[in-house]
Predict the structure.
Amino acid sequence: MSPAPDPALFDKVVNLCKRRGFVFPSAEIYGGFRSTYDYGPVGVLLLRNVKDAWWRSMVQLRHDIVGLDAAILSPPAIWEASGHLKNFTDPLVDCRKCRERFRLDKLDDPDECPNCHAKGSFTEARQFNLMFKTYAGPVEGTGAEVYLRPETAQGMFVNFKNVMETSRKRPPFGIAQIGKSFRNEITPGNFVFRTREFEQMEMEYFVPPDEAGKWYEYWRHERLRWYVDLGIPEDQLRLRAHDEEELSHYSSATSDVEFLFPWGWDELEGIANRTDYDLRQHAKASGESLDYFDQALGERYVPYVIEPAAGATRTAMAFLMAAYDEEEVAREGQGQGETRTVLRFHHRIAPYKVAVLPLSKKPELQEPANEVLGLLQQDYMCDYDETQAIGRRYRRQDELGTPFCVTIDFETLEDRAVTVRHRDSMAQDRVAIDGLADYLSPKLS
Ligand code: ATP
């Protein structure tokens, strides 16, 4: 049986994000800028770790996938050919009573306004294109229009030939890209779940047409496993296949990896069989041939594409939600009870791997503390904190999800050893400074 969503978790995580420097509302000193967020000192590390973990599994640990970093600004010709100018729309309705705007396909009841609860108050649905348009150069007008990409995928399709020719890859092979995408969402919301500016992690896997079904199954399961391997409990994840009417204009089959968010199951990633739609469209519109001649088979074909498309920002939020925990504990060193909030991140996702904490600000402790910091910084992102009682500093690191705290105390001056405190069990070990790297390495690699 799957667990129930926990609506209270949402506010707890959003508050912690602000309090500890994960995520700030954008332009806050000007009253904020609706549904736009900035990643603070800890959030930027979390987001980077999510992207690095994806890149590691998709590019570094494979021989069949290469990377790309394509431009965000793109000419209308790309979006004309891809079908986005015509089809990348959401149905928009306005409530005549309260004037709120909604995406028709996301309403629980298409006849009732979720804001004022009026029945039958919606206008006819209008198709609203989600792409941001701007102008390149000093003159605004026809001929100068450019678009901010709404997905990173098209960069991979228009570079298909360049990549194949330079990387010596042959189908089945993939092109992976991480980067910002922009969608003028009608109803952004749920914190960083749906924003107008967000980061995607997409991979286009080019395969012989008759192998598309096999690779679609392969990537559905591979991608689900990635989240489990990085610590999201299996019962908070599921694969959901799209119905026929839900499919995008380019897709013959799509499954979403869904996570149990505080408001219920919702999408983390879509795995789609994009067929040969995009390559054919770009070949037709550009006049370049985007097919492949398989010498072994003596056959020419346009590859099919299987695409796992994930959101980095949305995934970072899921990792935060899944890691959040509260437990009753004795106050460290005092025995009184208190509630401890702890982010039980997988060590690969945790923003800081180690916090270096001299017991006091006394100069004689700073020297060994700096030595330990300098040693560990070579391999790990470390935090350094020398003020407040040690118990409060441990709690702060728990809320950042730091797997290990290394405390330098006055005994260190005698024995050249430090106390290593484990985030999850709060157990403490005494470890020689000279053996610290060897002690931590198997736990953090
Ligand atoms: P939705 O149905 O939620 O609008 P989608 O199915 O259109 O999303 P895709 O085009 O498949 O989304 O994009 C791939 C991934 O990019 C999504 O699974 C999600 O993680 C991320 N993503 C898409 N739109 C947004 C957004 N507005 N804000 C944050 N992440 C997004």
